[in-house]
Write a structure and sequence with these properties.
337 residues, alpha/beta, DNA polymerase, domain 1, Rossmann fold, 9-stranded mixed β-sheet, two-stranded antiparallel ribbon, 14 helices, 39% helix, DNA damage, four-way junction DNA binding, DNA recombination, ATP-dependent DNA damage sensor activity, P-loop_NTPase
Length: 337
Amino acid sequence: MNWDQLELHPRIIAAVRRAGLRSLPDVLSVSGPDLQRLTSLSGSDVQQLLTAAANACRRHPPITALELHRRSESGLRLGVGCPVLDQLLRGGLPVGGITELSGQSGAGKTQLALQICLSVQYPTQYGGLDSGAVYICTEDSFPIRRLQQLIRNQSLLRSDVPPTLISSLQFSDHVYVEHAADLDSLQVCLSRRVPLLLARGLVRLLVVDSLAALFRSEFQAADWLERTKQLITFSSTLRHLSLEFTTPVLCINQVTDVFSSDDSLSQLSSSVSPALGLVWANQVMVRLMMRRLQATVTHGDQSSALRRLEVVLAPHLAQGGRDLAVWREGVRGVMSS
């Protein structure tokens, strides 16, 4: 839907575009007061905008996450390289839409993301997409040594793949690494370099690690309005890339503490939730959470802290989780005894 097709004053349309709101769902996902702050429009103007957007959506309904899932190449998935976890995800990551992987430091998020960067390079019959990956680092340097270790041990992790096929794949040649130290460089990367790689067919997976780092470092509490504008622009760009190129987008996210009162003990207890709030949550198709547990498991001469991957929300998945561990060869699910 083109904004010019709505029966709105040009001043309102101009304010919407300045705020970085690119689609009707972007407008309808923001509350009235927040929309007024984002656009600097009056209350009556915002009401006209919301009414026009709602009427347009009734005439031209936006694609829901479930419909997007149904349309995405007949349910084509990107496997994560582990049958236990692929079973949880009904085949892996959907090729259309944003998948968020959140969790505390040390939960294993980057480990799983690296493994998926190798999985995408396999043919479709082995859960891949026959293409490469672009990995955008926003805070830490790219873990190249760990990637090389995973590559050396692919034959141990992927016993389902013929060894001759594994040896023929030049894994490191098809993982493109970008570094974005600030939001401007991230936007340049997403608007110029990444589309070029996608259009040439060199990659079919986009990983952003980590999502919240730049938004936490660049904005103070008083800058929430500009932060929201930037977040909407960023998420719209990711969704556009995913839909245009039928490409899985995996965003690693940090978590924030959530405190609640326990009346029985008159104390505060703490849990965690994904960072960046409701504006970002509305852009995500699949939300996964990784947790590090207290238990330890062994595998040959290796030991690993037990982790758990949980489905928090997804239109096509049941809520639930699987235990996993991180070994030299990669991330494997741990079957319950």
